[in-house]
Structures are given as C-alpha cells and as structure tokens.
Model the fold of this input.
Amino acid sequence: MSQFKNIQDENLPIWLPRLVGNKGPRFLQIADALQAAMVDGSLKPGDRLPPQRQLAAQLDVDLTTITRAYDEARRRNLLEGRGARGTYVAAPKVELNAILDLSMNTPPPPDGVDFDDMLKQGLSQVLMRADNELLMTYHLAGGGDADRKAGAKWLAPMFGHLDFRQVVVCPGAQAAIAALILALTEPGDVILAEPMSYPGLRAAATQFGRHIIAVEADKYGMVPEMLEEACRQHKPGLVYLNPTLQNPTAITIPEHRRKDLASIAKRCNVRIVEDDPYWFLADAPPPPIATFAPQQVVYISTLSKCLTPGLRVAFVLIRAQHERERFLAALRSFALMVAPLTAALATQWILDGSADGLMEGVRNEARLRHWMVRDILAGRYSGFGDGLHVWLELPGYWNPAQFARAADREGIAVTPAEAFATGSASANAIRISLGCIRDRGRLQAGLQRLSHLLTQRPESFSAAVV
Done:
C-alpha cells in the first residue's frame, strides 16, 4: 500500500502522506509517497492533485515544502502542470535507455543550480578577461600563477594559507597518480594500499611495472601496525591512501588514526600519496594526513568528483621543490598541460565563488540520495550519508560477480568488489554509485530493483537460452 490515506473533501480526493520525523526531508517523503501511490494504483494518470496551499494546510507544513515536493515529483516525471487547471498525475514516460548506470562515480546534478547558465557565464567571463590566443596555445606544465593561486584557494579549507608555488595543476587525479608513481618510485618497487582501493592506482602501477601489496584495513581504514610492519618488510616506494569516504568502502579514516599513519610515514621515511577527492563532500571531515606530515605526504584534490568530470583539473600539493620538479618532469612525459580553456574556467569559478555554490549543491543532492538509499537498503550498506557511493555487503548466497551479472540482466550496472581488489582476497560486496542518473525517480526505481534482487537466490536468475 502507498503511504497515502484518502480523505474526502466534498468531491475532491485529497491524498495525504504520513510524515515521519526520521525518514528524511519532508518534501522527499511527499514525493516518495506520490510515487508509491502511483505504483500501487491509488493514483492514476490524469488524476488531479490538490492545490499546493490546500495540501500544505492538510499536512500542517509550510507552502515551500509542498512546492519542493511537487518540483521533485516533476523531476521524476510523475506530475505535469496544466496551467490554471492545476497539477495532474503524468502518464508513464517511455524510457528508451533501459540501463541504469550505478557503476560510475560522478557528481549528481544539483537541484537549484542552473549548470547551463553557470557554464555560459563562466566561459563568458573567461573570454572577456583572457587573451584568447593564450587559451589556444601551449602552456608550461603545472599551471600558471593564476591557476595555482586558485588551487591554493581551493585547498585553503584543508590547510589554511598556502604558498601557491607549492601547488601543481594537473589534468585530473589519474594523471597526477601516474606521474607520482613515475617520479617517486622505480620499476619493481612496491606500493602499499588498502585491500580495496581505487582501480586507477592498480592500472597505473601495472602499466609502469610496480607491485601493489595490500595492507590490512578495518572499519577505520588502514591499520597502523600493519602499515609499519609492511614498510619494514617491503621497503615500499609509496603508500597510497584515499582517506575520506574511501572508494569503494566509503570509510573515513578518523583523525587519531590519520596522525598514527603520518607518524609511521615519518618514522619509516616513506611517501604517502593522499588522494582525497571526496573531502568536500563529507560532513565535518578530519584534517588531511598531509597536515600531520607535510614533508612526507603529497596531497591530491580533484574537481571531477565534487564539481564536474568535464573540467579535468586536479590540484597537487607537493611541499619539497625537488619532488615538484621530478613530478613535473614525469607529468610532461605523457600530459604536457591541462587544457588552458578548462583550467581558466576552473580558476574563474573558484575565484568568483561559483565553484563553492556548485559544490554545495552537489553535496546537498548527494545527501538527499543517501536518504533514499537509507530508506530502501536500510541495514545493508555502508555509506554514512555522504559522498557519491555506498558499499553494499551481499548475503552469503550471492558473490559479487554473480550479483553484478544478475543486476545487468535487470538493466542495472553496478561494480563488483573484484574491480577494487589490490591483492588475492576480495570482499563479498558491490559498489553502488549514486550520481550518474540525473532523475531521482529512476535512481529510486533502480535501488528498489536491487533491494528485491538481494532477496532472491542466484539460481532464480539463470540466463535463458534463445
């Protein structure tokens, strides 16, 4: 049954959701209830909904809540406005693209941010203020002074005031990771990482002939004692950590453990690459590890995971000048520069505050989507209400590859744990990404299908032979 109860007011049916304090924002509860009523047939295409003021009075909420609920329902293609005649339940929309992509970590489109206008305004400002010829020619690797100053401003919430000359501008975090491996390690060297880690690290290390060894992790991230033991045993060239809302487990390493890991890095004289794309998306994130061991840690912050992937801009904080020079030489061997136009746009957005507004919109949208996950997959996942993904532990009768194949047959793409494994062992889990699907209604439907699939057993999904 839907969450609505039918109340007759003369001849007009009024549908009222039962609002619950711990079920997330009220406007989302109302939109969810509308969708549930359509699923169970309580509301049908063409049914007229009550005026917003009337519904606000019935529910004893403010008008803004109802307006946001109706706007959310329109985003899900549940409602349509017919001018003065009111708001009606929409007919089902034919979906030509049946695949729901829950496999790619991208920022969700934020509600209330006109991205098209923001893009046009930003490019307009860049073209007015910059020499257009300079936007279409070669630049030195590492970014110009304006771009590096923008990077220092971007990193200020983590580190306070920075010397912009210690900041390097890169064409994305993956390029930065690859260049750091080339600059700070030799062929055959060991790189230490958590058992589940970012797949791009493994790809780059394998390509360059480095070996990744997994270090034990628990619910708080990499275990310090195990890191120290691995450092003494393997003499690693680098330690790779993704400490905030880790990809894929969504774990955030607490401050006390960050201090312990930094102390070990200093004691063992090993470099840490702190890849921290989700710091801005976390609620009250701890200080970066780099604040506790500035000379031992290279810090990477990309715009791709909190603003938009199309910028392909990352900022790398490297304190030691000789390491910056080695890093830039390695970077130039395969990526001469960030595209000047996108670097200028990123700089413009950071300096004029647009980046902060977009990031806040992405953060709020991500949290709304986590409320949705919490309601549908309660007790089955780790995600902690922030970031772009959740880590879903599977019941024992499923393994990750089986479940991913079964989800694919249901039209849903997810990422199995094997994609993240740095050693021989793997977890019985999948990563679900929340940002790639623009429409929340489609995301909700996909999560509900996954929830149903979790209750089934693999033998129920043997492929038909045709």
Remarks:
- Confidence is low (pLDDT under 50) at residues 1-13.
- DSSP finds 14 helices and 19 strands in the chain.
- The chain has three domains: 4-89, 100-113+359-461, 140-355.
- The two ends are 37 Å apart (CA to CA).
